[in-house]
Amino acid sequence: MTIKDWLEGLSYKLVQGSLDVEVNEVIYDSRKAAPGAVFVCMKGTKIDSHDFIPQVTEAGVRVLVTEHPVEAPAGVTVVETENGREALALLSAARFGYPSRKLTMIGVTGTKGKTTTTHMIKTILETAGKKTGMIGTNGVYIGEEHFPTVNTTPESYDLHRYFAKMVEDGCECCVMEVSSQAMKMHRVAGIHFNYGLFTNISPDHIGKDEHADFAEYLYYKKQLFHQCDRALINVDDEHIDEIVKDIPCPWTGFGLKEGAGFQAENIHYVSEPDFVGVEFDIKGEHQIPVRVSIPGKFNVYNALAAAAVTLWVGVPAEKLQHALEHLKINGRMEIVYTSEKCCVIVDYAHNAVSMESLLATLREYHPKRLVVVFGCGGNRSRDRRYSMGEIGGRMADLSIITADNSRFEKVEDIIADIRGSMEKTGGKFIEIPDRKEAIAYSITHAEPGDMIAIIGKGHEDYQEINGVRYPFLDRAVVEEVVKNLSI
Ligand SMILES: CC(=O)N[C@H]1[C@@H](OP(=O)(O)OP(=O)(O)OC[C@H]2O[C@@H](n3ccc(=O)[nH]c3=O)[C@H](O)[C@@H]2O)O[C@H](CO)[C@@H](O)[C@@H]1O[C@H](C)C(=O)N[C@@H](C)C(=O)N[C@H](CCC(=O)O)C(=O)O
Ligand SMILES: Nc1ncnc2c1ncn2[C@@H]1O[C@H](COP(=O)(O)OP(=O)(O)OP(=O)(O)O)[C@@H](O)[C@H]1O
């Protein structure tokens, strides 16, 4: 391969050297410099990697892609382009042989529900026999393999490396979360999505290094529509008019609104000893009754969107129904135990907004008592402790305040902050600093018909204390308690 072969689709200027230089790798981190690699420079939020040109050329790099004129040794090829991150995306796609073109690509964007919906889509597609790779906040899943990620949408080079692995491992489809930040940072530049899904939008990710304001946030979320054949959009979103304004691709609505292409109706919240979830009828393009084994109104939206897109992919109705009825998503409204006595749910809700919507949704199931077990992370905003304490006090029948990832703070200090706001509400609470004991207490003291929500850590398999991550999984603790006490 020569660098010329990898420049397809990129607008560039050759400012030094030749395009016939043989290349075998694309890098964007100077510490990986080696002969044969193309080093793509960019101005990052902290570092300008053009500064590393002396080091990388010293290490044998013979091709540089830069955003502005640079000084480079004679014999080194310099290609100038407008945006290094976009160049990285296009070169990486070429480097791996455009693997995303061999996959049915589904992109999911939105403020809330991305992770849940991508998991649902993957489960449905795999139930229908379509091997599916998945990329998002919880990491990358390819077959039995799991790779952790730093970002919800990883850097472009890593994306294409994972797509290539998916193709190699026989995946037919890829479902991935596409964050607005990824759009802004060109991580998905050049990727073509067969389907683009927009779950919802509300103000979030606004601030230094993210989005300047809500308009910019929306603008970047909408960029997905420029890269997909067909879009699926939540028509109940309060910003629907702005979302679909000047939309460049055909789109279909989903939601509860009459006339939506995929409409949910006859919604029932079901709480039975062996099934807790929600059932509804899909109306519109298809008429299919479904039962979803994850509770909550927002999971009606997530399941409806997942159903719609997988029906478009060609999944038969009975496979869809089976998948939704037996769904389990680690740490997202995960029902870990249900019996005549109580129902125990593990969820990742770790701020007041998520906690409030979670508790409100569980109320719909009319539990005898709604019990919440939670703490707050150390070395993070103290406001979160006050607001979560207030929500617990106001919305639960009993709050059991315990430890989360205390990091470098004392659990007792964090609990004291939570207690401060909880007391003002008059809500009932107890304090059990040891999280394992708190979980055990919630179950052993359950009253028939109770719902117990253990929140904040979801899928996390550790508890971070004084810089050490100790193994800890809420679900495993529940299972152990239930087994030992055989209730
Ligand atoms: C603000 C932001 O988005 N930053 C992202 C960005 O980092 P950066 O621009 O700060 O990078 P930098 O440290 O300045 O480095 C610039 C360049 O120098 C290179 N470098 C650096 C050091 C060195 O010795 N040599 C060298 O060549 C780096 O490899 C890089 O190419 O590029 C990195 C690589 O892709 C990202 O990991 C990083 O995400 C940070 C960790 C982050 O927190 N991002 C958040 C805001 C984010 O992206 N969030 C979204 C949304 C999540 C959601 O919806 O919930 C996400 O998709 O995760
Ligand atoms: N469709 C939805 N609408 C509103 N809230 C939702 C929806 N789906 C999930 N939630 C709530 O938001 C929390 C996060 O859900 P999820 O991880 O699926 O979203 P996300 O878009 O990936 O979020 P994040 O960007 O914060 O990782 C859940 O624990 C739940 O409380």
Automatic annotation (TrEMBL):
Identify the residues that bind ATP.
110-116
Q: Which domain of life is it from?
A: Bacteria
Protein's UniProt keywords contain Magnesium: yes
Q: Which Pfam families match?
A: Mur_ligase, Mur_ligase_C, Mur_ligase_M
E.C. number: 6.3.2.-
Q: Which residues form a coiled coil?
A: none
Q: Which SUPFAM superfamilies match?
A: MurD-like peptide ligases, catalytic domain, MurD-like peptide ligases, peptide-binding domain, MurE/MurF N-terminal domain
Stretches assigned to the Mur ligase C-terminal domain: 331-458
Q: In which pathway does it act?
A: Cell wall biogenesis; peptidoglycan biosynthesis
Protein's recorded name: UDP-N-acetylmuramyl-tripeptide synthetase
